[in-house]
From TrEMBL:
GO terms for MF: hydrolase activity
The name this protein goes by in its record: Dienelactone hydrolase domain-containing protein
Domain of life: Eukaryota
SUPFAM superfamilies documented for this protein: alpha/beta-Hydrolases (SSF53474)
InterPro entries per the UniProt record, alphabetical: AB_hydrolase_fold, Dienelactn_hydro
Residue ranges annotated for the Dienelactone hydrolase domain, each copy included: 54-311
Length: 313
């Protein structure tokens, strides 16, 4: 009998979609569809895209979890990082068109008069518009998430099919995609541009790989998945890594997380590891914001990442 999939990958598992109006731009980088969030996106004319007049010494490379760059939540996060840090955020499709969500995703929301703003950042230009229309629930063991349509090729996938999909996105395939994106960043913003990296789930592994390869020095990973201890061990002197993890995570169980911390202690990297109670894998990008514990954890992880980049990038 086939084992059940983790909710992160199971097409029958509902996922919450945060309400909001992303303001970034989709462009093609060497044939790779890429979402770019710019701190002054609303000030750009209709014939500009955020890289048309680059005057930035720093950028953030945002690598998504399996849902990809068309998950509204990821786009909203990218926008807010750009706003908070006043630098561009580059979010490439590292799955080469095979992310979990299709481009034409149309999220649905529960009907309610109450609005929970999707972010605590009241300076966010869209603060009042970005909210999940549902009351806050305290001490809830389960979250009432909202279903969205999955791409046809993903439906009815069993564990074996997911493993086949995952195999198509291992380092031998993904590293060259990211190499092209990093090359474009340096060509566009200058060879001396400082690149910070943030990764969620699948993307977290590749942030660590880029750090180990000396491509970026400052990284943040949220509930990272599928990485190896050899990859962690390659982090060296001058690198800065922050980990934000879930209490319950069968992709990153506490045993692997603690082993990761042990390996980091043997490196010369500067690191931190934070675990949030009452959370499960995916909380910082797909969490149900009506659950107070999840909401506070998501906000804390976001603020922690902003602070990490401000201090070290």
């Amino acid at each position: 009998m086939t084992e059940s999939l983790h909710p992160c990958c199971d097409p029958s598992s509902p996922s919450p979609i945060w309400e909001g109006n992303p303001t970034g731009t989709i462009i093609s980088i060497c044939g790779i569809e890429t979402y770019i969030a710019h701190p002054n996106a609303r000030d750009l004319s209709s014939d500009q895209h955020p890289s048309s007049n680059p005057k930035h010494e720093k950028v953030i490379l945002f690598l998504t979890e399996g849902h990809g760059i068309y998950l509204p939540n990821a786009q909203l996060l990218a926008d807010s990082f750009a706003h908070q840090l006043s630098i561009p955020v580059i979010m490439p499709d590292q799955f080469a068109g095979q992310a979990r969500l299709p481009k034409d995703i149309v999220p649905s929301f529960p009907s309610s008069h109450a609005t929970v703003p999707w972010t605590e950042d009241k300076d966010d230009p869209n603060y009042e518009l970005r909210g999940l229309k549902a009351p806050v629930k305290e001490n809830s063991e389960t979250s009432d998430a909202y279903r969205f349509e999955k791409p046809p090729w993903w439906k009815k996938q069993a564990e074996g099919e997911f493993e086949k999909w995952k195999a198509r996105h291992e380092p031998i395939v993904t590293d060259p995609i990211l190499e092209k994106v990093v090359g474009w960043i340096r060509e566009t913003y200058g060879e001396d541009v400082k690149i910070g990296g943030i990764g969620y789930c699948f993307g977290g592994r590749y942030i660590m790989r880029l750090m180990g390869a000396g491509v970026i020095d400052v990284g943040v990973v949220n509930h990272p998945s599928f990485y190896t201890m050899d990859e962690v061990a390659k982090l060296g002197n001058g690198t800065r890594l922050a980990i934000f993890a879930a209490e319950k995570d069968d992709i990153l169980p506490k045993e692997k997380r603690r082993e990761t911390e042990d390996v980091l202690e043997g490196t010369e990297t500067t690191w931190r590891s934070t675990v949030y109670s009452g959370t499960e894998h995916g909380f910082s990008v797909r969490g149900d914001l009506t659950v107070k514990e999840v909401r506070l954890a998501k906000e804390s992880a976001f603020r922690g990442a902003v602070q990490w980049f401000r201090e070290w990038l």
